[in-house]
Hints:
Layout: H1 2-15, H2 21-33, H3 35-69, H4 75-89, H5 93-111, E1 120-126, E2 129-132, E3 138-139, E4 147-148, E5 151-155, E6 161-166, E7 171-184, E8 188-201, E9 210-213, E10 217-221, E11 224-230, E12 234-241, E13 243-248, E14 254-258, E15 261-266, E16 276-277, E17 285-286, H6 289-292, E18 293-295, E19 297-300, E20 307-310, E21 312-316, E22 323-331, E23 347-354, E24 358-367, E25 373-383, E26 391-398, E27 403-404, H7 407-412, E28 425-434, E29 441-448
Parallel strand pairs: 8-9
Antiparallel strand pairs: 1-4, 1-6, 2-3, 2-5, 5-7, 6-7, 7-8, 8-11, 9-10, 10-13, 11-12, 12-15, 13-14, 15-16, 17-29, 18-22, 19-20, 20-29, 21-22, 22-28, 23-26, 23-29, 24-25, 24-28, 25-27
Helix pairs in contact: 1-2, 2-3, 3-5
Amino acid sequence: MKDTESRQELLLRYLDDNLLPEEKAQVADLLRRDPKARAFLREVAEQAVTVADVERVKERRRSELEARQDWAGNRREALSRMGGSRTRFARWPWAVAAAAVVALIASVVLLRPKAEPKIVQITELNGAVRWTGGGGQVVPDLYVGSSLPGGTLESLSADSWIDLEFRDGSTVTASGQSVMTISEYRQKELHLHVGSLSASIMPQPDGKPMLIHTPTAKLEVLGTQLNIEADASSTMLSVNKGRVRVTRLADGSVAEVPAEHQVVASVDHHAELAVTRRPKPVTAWQSDLATDGLHGKWLPKPGDSNGSLRTAPLLWGCHEKPITLYLVALSVSRSRPIPVLLTSRGKLRIRGRIESAGDVYFGLTTRHVKGGFAGKFVVERHFEVVQETGESLDIELGFEDFRPQERELTEKFPERFPDSPVGLELFDWWCCTINEDAGLEITHVELDG
């Protein structure tokens, strides 16, 4: 109560123009953040204006009467009346103060930056993720529970991923090295510039489908579960539930993709925009390093179609002390759009070379068979190097060796984030060292189911 009276006294002293400079700044701040203070001052101002109007009418009538009575008076008396009018105006300080109050309130309210509407909330995340909002504001330290307006999200590394939820319950997961812009003006819109996402979209209003833009296609989504992988030359879409309308940007060709089907929209308008049934998963896969590489330095062998991928540095700048990953990452679906299923008997074999001793982390990104991000799994191995020229690398990993990257999510949401990769689809694969370049080169990656 005393605080309220103190604020009101401060506002009334403002009306009397009886404030120190620091108190004027205090009033401006109070009006900016407190709607009750604005309402109080506006009410006082309106009353002051009303009183001033009544006084003004009385003075005008009195002046008119005096003017008729003194019509024949001399010039000195007329001048005296003019001087009196200036004195009378001084009787209305509240009118002047009221006008100033109205102007101040208007400036505080109108010039105050309008908060951007929040579009999505972060429900889960891992690794280095960065958001850039309106005006170029960069926020590297995101956390679960953050609500974000329109802007661009970047998942910065092979083991990074982020879950977003729209206000209607629609969810989107971006994983790996992905860049995605989010907006919601007349309808939901995503721009997947590069990378991969999995989305479960609630039914949308009639005539306002969710739009997903990639460098090569536009997707219209009314309500569905889908997976997308996009780069500058092609878009791979798999629909698990619902239906998606796809427009290839190269020539405007349109296709309807129903559940359990997929399509590739490339920059090549001569290629058929063919919608095909999603094939049954296979349990064996062999990398094509030149085509599948997502991150790493390609080292071709002269006179040979084979080569190697050497780890390339990737800086995590989202920590107080930045971390450098020396990373190779491979897409499993880029060279052929056939699902790869991980089984209990499956083995992952990696060949290459390593120049210095160190710990190497091997990772998997997985999806559920019926669609949706299923988490990332990692395993660590230590390598000793005896020869000065380095050592050959030939390692075989069973899927029982891999552990969930986020154990607490497995405990909290076991159906979505299983404890084992067995029974899931393999989406991409990576290996890295942390802060130390071990000179790791990969020459072959193969899955034997």
